[in-house]
Amino acid sequence: MTPKNLREAALRKGGWRLFRPILAGATFPDRLFACLGALAGIALVGAFCGFLLGAGPHAPLIVAPLGASAVLLFAVPSSPLAQPWSILGGNAVSALIGLLAARWIPDPTLAVALGVATAIGVMSLTRCLHPPGGAMALTAALGGPAVEAWGFWFPLVPVALNSALLVVCGLAFHRLLGHRYPATATPNPHLTADPPAWRRGGFQAADVDAALTALDESFDIDREDLTRLIKRIEREAARRLHGGLSCGEIMSRDVIRVREETDARAARDLLLKHNIRSLPVEDAEGRLVGTVGLRELADAEGAVGPLTARAITAFAQTPAMSLLSALTDGRTHAVIVTDSGRRILGVVSQTDLLGAAGGMLARSRS
Questions:
Q1: Is 178 helix (H, G, I), strand (E, B) or coil?
Q2: Cβ-contact 66, 74 below 8 angstroms
Q3: What does the DSSP assignment read for 288-345?
Q4: What pTM value is reported for the model?
Q5: Closest among 61, 88, 63, 60 to 73, alpha carbons compared
Q6: In the chain, at which end, N or C, are there fewer CB atoms within 10 A of the end residue's CB?
Q7: Which CATH architecture has domain 247-365?
Q8: How far is the C-alpha of 65 from the C-alpha of 134, rounded, in Å?
């Protein structure tokens, strides 16, 4: 191949990279659902506002910068810039600032420039920084029939109304898909003041702040999400490095279990006798139905079947360290190891995993 052909091939190869997703973790289904969410959200906001306000040049159904808000809300819902207060406050505050700039500054060019700049500052101070807010300030400062018709109501109707309706659509959409929105700090499952177990080991929040200060850059990711991401990376690295040990090798095989028809008092006595926290529950064919613990059995009467909770399961060949996340979530005390027919083979408890991890650490140091 000639040097010219090599350069052309390199350019073609590099050019295709432009079409690859740049968002970490972005998959084709995620982007497809983001498109569907934006379609539904914008359509519902437009339809509702059209019904409420009426259609016409002086009563816009929806303001243009809301399209950019939809991109953030449905495509990157974990971003701090896409949270409910960012969308609602950022758009409404910026629209008001744009209006004030147009009224107080005679020169249009200076008015739009100062409107956008001031909007960035005020959004930052009020903790509602939202990129479409810059476009909202520009829209309000440029004016037009719709802005003039609404006057100082413009930041509320249609801007705040549009934004609030879009947020409601986003909340419903992400709840339907099982996404965590809005982004919130992970609470301790035991309802105590201690941070969750996964946050206590390794680096701390102060370390993240120090690193961000040292880098002297702004990142479009919340500190809580950044911490969760790095902790997850640590777990995946541990799983990869110590993935040779399987659940079948470390599981407890003499499993204390009950049937669905077992009386709750008998199940409670088993828990206390064997000093364990939960029991696997089987159906009449010996298949795993779920688990039951002291919380469900405390004051219960009758059969345990209706009291069962969903069981966290794994196969015998599953890497043992892959259970680290489940067994440190503060809720799961044991993972049930089953075969493909959901018949119980064993149990991996927190103690089993800790013992295995300690053994691997000792071997690595020897």
A1: coil
A2: no
A3: EEEEEEHHHHTT--SBSGGG-BPPPEE-TTSBGGGGHHHHTSSS--EEEEE-TT-BEE
A4: 0.61
A5: 88
A6: C
A7: Roll (3.10)
A8: 9
For residue 279, the surrounding DSSP H or E stretch is strand 278-282
Residue 325 in contact with residue 235, Cβ under 8 Å? yes
> pLDDT of 307-344, one tens digit each?
999 999 999 999 888 888 788 777 888 999 999 999 99
For residue 269 the two structure tokens come to 């006595």
User: What is the model's pLDDT at position 299?
Assistant: 85
Name 282's Cβ contacts closer than 8 Å, sequence gap at least 6: 257, 258, 259, 260, 288, 289, 344
Distance CA 38, CA 253 (A): 50
Is it true that the peptide bond before 319 is cis, omega within 30 degrees of 0?
A: no
> Where in the chain is CATH 3.10.580.10?
247-365
Q: Tell me, what's the pLDDT at 329?
A: 78
pLDDT at 11: 45
Residue 149: predicted pLDDT: 84
Residue written as tokens 């303001």? 63
The residues, ordered by sequence, that sit 6+ positions from 80 with a Cβ below 8 Å of its Cβ are: 86, 129, 183, 220, 221, 222
Residue 276 tokens read as: 């364990």
Instruction: Give the residue carrying structure tokens 């995946």.
Output: 236
Q: Is 113 helix (H, G, I), strand (E, B) or coil?
A: helix
For 45, 61, 165, 234, 278, the CA distances from 157, given in Å and listed in that order, are 13, 10, 12, 48, 55
How many Cβ atoms are within 10 Å of 264's Cβ, its own excluded?
21
CA 60 to chain centre: 33
Q: 337 is written with which tokens?
A: 């190891």
> What's the rounded Cα separation, in Å, for the pair 121 and 143?
21
pLDDT at 224 over 50: yes
**Distance of alpha carbon 334 from alpha carbon 313, whole angstroms:** 9
How many C-alpha atoms does 274 have within 13 Å on its Cβ side?
Answer: 15
Give the number of C-alpha atoms closer than 13 A to the C-alpha of residue 148, restricted to the C-beta side.
5
What is the CB-side half-sphere exposure of residue 22 using CA atoms within 13 A?
Answer: 4
Structure token digits, residue 107:
């020169």
